[in-house]
Amino acid sequence: MNSVILQLAAKYLKWLFIVFAVLALIRGHNSPGGGFIGGLMAGLAIVYNGFAYDTFRIKERLQNFPEWLIAGGLFVIVLSFFPSLLLGETIMSGVWLKISLPLVGELKLGSPLLFDIGVFFTVIGVTLMFIFSLTQKR
Amino acid sequence: MITLVALPILIPFVLIIGMLVCRSDKLARWLGPVASGLLLLLTVVLFVFVQKHGVLAIQMGGWEAPFGITLVVDYLSALMLVVSAIILFVIAVYALNFLPDSININRFFIFFFGLAMGMNGAFVTGDVFNLFVWFEVMLMSSFVLITMGRSKDQLEGGIKYLALNLVGSLLFLAGVGLLYGKTGTLNMAHLAEILKNDDQAILMNTSAVLFFIAFGIKAAVFPLYFWLPASYHTPNITISSLFAGLLTKVGVYTFIRFFTLFFVHDPQFWHQILLVVAGFTMVAGGLAAAAHYETRRILSYHIISQIGYMIMGLGIFTPLAIAGAIFFTLHNMIAKTNTFLVSGMINKARGTFELKEIGGLFKESPLTAILFMIPAFALAGVPPISGFFAKFILIKAGIENGNYVITAVAIFTAMLTLYSMIKIWNEAFLKKQPGNGNPGRSYSFSFAEYFPSVLLGIVSILMGIFAMYVFGYTMEAANQLINPDLYIETVLKGIKL
After folding, report:
1. What DSSP state is assigned to residue B62?
2. What are the chain B neighbours of A70 within 8 Å (beta carbons)?
């Protein structure tokens, strides 16, 4: 597909998608959202861009990209188990780190957020893998 | 230390990541068997802990019992974990020699450990929805494994397998929904406690029927087993053996868990149905196995026949019968996998699974014949080997409880089993090679190729010789299932170790 309108829209909309994806990821702990939804939105941004500029061109550039995303995401998930283990708590317990930054105020970083980030990347990877296999020309 | 309970899930998970990142066949060849051996060691350690403490429970993320996800290991789970880890280890070794070159071994081990993760998760979880998730993990991995050879019949078998099992999953999910709607909890221990003191337990029948069909499909019982013979003979023999030993037994495990822990409000009805289903499963599977002449098909139908015995033990529903069912499940996992392994060896020696084209193997490779004889005798129930004691306990329980019909059916089916085993024995090993008596190829196995089958054969024999101890453990498991107080207390009150 070679549509100027779509390409122009994709150019700006993909960033909007990604911003909302990250937003959904960060607010996910206590409100609707989270790594899974955020990951789907971010995956959508890449897919949208791919359709506008011809997916197959993207695919060549991103040959093993989905698998690396999945592996990386899963690895981050495993990492998120360690804070609770090192502190001697039950595995997967939420461990929170409070830091205060100038301008932003107090920031709470925790292992659940790390877990969500892992899910985020895994879901992007899976979405891309689906799209790549579905658009493959045989 | 309590984190040990989560490790049977976490180890395969980490391995999957490692193999995704490092796509090296050489590494996979080492990592697969070594890591499965580690898993086996871990499950044995878990079993020792269970012996010491009775029941182990961990609340994931520190969320207290009815709210969070609980992982529980009791005797039943621990026994299943140990035996399935033996099978995983053996298959990992077997895969090194018997997986064809067309299947990438690294890719195989990724999904092998995916299956291991789903199965271990199903064994240790104490939460009904979590169980559903593990079932899905298993379903996805096994679908990929079936279709791994990329041939047309594998895809056909795989799609049949996937479609029928998805129907099962759907019903499972509907049952979970109804259960949650009625009780407001999905924690198994909490459910058991609520339903124990509830005079409206009759309302549970709708979800019980949904679970019954869902697990019936997973465990391949009588009217719901069609996916099994349609798919098990298509993949490579390594993968068939893996499935034969593990997949349906997870369904049996959930049957035992659910119909002893909380669907016990109406044993007259439910356990009667279980008995009827068990009888038909035994006979239907046994007869179909007797009719076929392809080793993998015979053995696949025979799996179904054997599932009947396990369900029979559950249906009689006395401690002895449940102990018999667990014993039978453990023995069957070992022996059944072993028959598949040997049929893979027959295939390697002759290049076919069709019994009519095979013969004379006894002369060519007596050790293979003995290796087939051990699991075949175990399945048929010849005394010194494991199967005799499993069947003996079940039949004794049936007679003691006055279930004469099902006991008679069980004895009759044992004859069918013996017949189909003797058929393979006669055709493949004793009779002369058809045609001019020259197989056209000969193959001598190396030690590494014998090893998996030898190991399983030894386990079978040891289970028979030390049947007293194994029976002691299964009896312990059955007592825990019949009186689930310790289970409930450990999960809900959170006894700390």
Report:
1. G
2. 20
CB contact under 8 A, A91 and B3: yes
Q: How confident is the model at residue B116 (pLDDT cuts 50, 70, 90)?
A: very high
Q: What is the average pLDDT across B469-492?
A: 89
Nearest chain B residue to A78, by CA: B14
Domain membership of residue A77 as a residue range: 4-81+115-134
Count: domains in chain A: 1
Total domains, chain B = 1
Which residues on neighbouring strands pair with residue A108, listed in sequence order?
A: A98
Residues of A in contact with B20 (CB under 8 A): 67, 70-71, 74
Q: State whether A93 and B14 contact (CB < 8 Å).
A: no
Distance of CA B315 to the CA centre of its chain: 18
Asked if residue A92 is part of any domain, the answer here is: no
Name which of B13, B20, B59 is nearest A90 (Cβ-Cβ). Answer: B59
Residues of chain A that touch chain B, judged by Cβ-Cβ distance less than 8 Å: 67-68, 70-71, 74-75, 78, 81, 84-85, 89-94
Query: Could you tell me which chain A residue has the CA closest to the CA of B61?
Result: A93
Average pLDDT, chain B: 88
Q: Is the pLDDT of residue A60 over 50?
A: yes
Cα dihedral B21/B27/B32/B36 (nearest 10): -90
DSSP per-residue codes, B73-138: E-HHHHHHHHHHHHHHHHHHHHHHHHS-TTS-HHHHHHHHHHHHHHHHHHHHB-BHHHHHHHHHHH
Q: Would you say residue A17 lies in a domain?
A: yes
Examine residue B334 and state whether it is found in any structural domain, yes or no. yes
| pLDDT for the residue B497 | 46
| Residue B230 located in a structural domain | no
In-domain check, residue B157: no
ipTM > 0.90? no
Per-residue pLDDT band at B39 (split at 50, 70, 90): very high
* Distance from C-alpha of B29 to C-alpha of B24, rounded to nearest angstrom: 9
- B328 band by pLDDT with thresholds 50, 70 and 90: very high
Range of the domain at B320: 266-465
Q: With respect to residue B382, please indicate whether it lies within any of the assigned structural domains.
A: yes
A125 located within any domain: yes
Average pLDDT rounded to a whole number, residues B283-297: 90
CB contact under 8 A, A91 and B6: yes
